[in-house]
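Aim 2 progress update. The chain analyzed this quarter is reproduced below.
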Amino acid sequence: MTMYTVKKYDQNDYKFWNEFIAQAKNATFLFHRDFMEYHSDRFEDFSLLVFEDQKLISVLPANKVEDSIYSHQGLTYGGLVYKEQTKLAQVIQIFQAVLFFLNENKFERLHYKTIPSIYHIKPAEEILYSLFLADAELVRRDSLSVIDLSQENMTSKIRKRGFQKAKENKLEIREETNFESFWNEVLIPNLDKKHQAKPVHSVQEMNYLKSHFSKNIHQFNVYQDDKIVAGTTVFETETVAHCQYISKNEKQENLGSLDYLYHYLIKERFAEKKFFDFGISNENQGRNLNEGLSYWKESFGASTIIHDYYKVETSNYNKLNGIFV
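Predicted structure tokens:
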């Protein structure tokens, strides 16, 4: 632990942090400070930087709630971020230094959200071994429906029929630069009707994020006679096209709109990506599966990748002593 220095992020680290994120092997644009801070009023940031001999070697996007630290709760995934040349033994020692720092600062536990493997630019599961050594407790497990775009994937007959129906209905797909139509006419009404919920992001927040990450955030709408009938919001990273929001006009049930849209996204627009990620079909902290939603995603050829969440006592830094032989 004496090799490593841990400090809390402050605004003076903005450029330093973002430069590191741009070179890491397991980072995406979600870890850029401009993305993390669009909702800074909702979370008390407690992100960490780890140094070895004054050289930045790792960062942890995080926020604090009372006596606990969380992998940033405003992000879909998170965890220790590090470069390609960082070795397994170093990651273990970095993790120990983080736990020690948190323990010294009177935080009792770290709630750790992993970065699913499909988002790694190169394999980066060193932290999973570190969590095991620290006796971290698995507290949640979500299932992502993912298509490996380098493989041949079977699309079900029912999806193909939907695609043909959409062509017969003369549907049109447009990539938009704003989010108002989809949010106000499709997404918000559907979430309110089905779940009495609102989107995590407001229209204003999405427009802000789009202005900062225009190459990463995309909105696709489906129209019939210039009337919006469906849409999806896609977050694009170096390896993955991820569906952040998916919704259609329930009154237009039989148009084949989403079958048409996703055929285009998978087979054409994002065909050169490594993976297409439909996201989770889980509820209740991973304890329940929306079977119909999961089946719909699988009918495009998707299968399962796991996203894990852990809880570890900061005092467990001691468990990482004496492990090297």
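The mean pLDDT is 95. The two ends are 17 Å apart (CA to CA). These observations will guide the mutagenesis experiments scheduled for the next reporting period.
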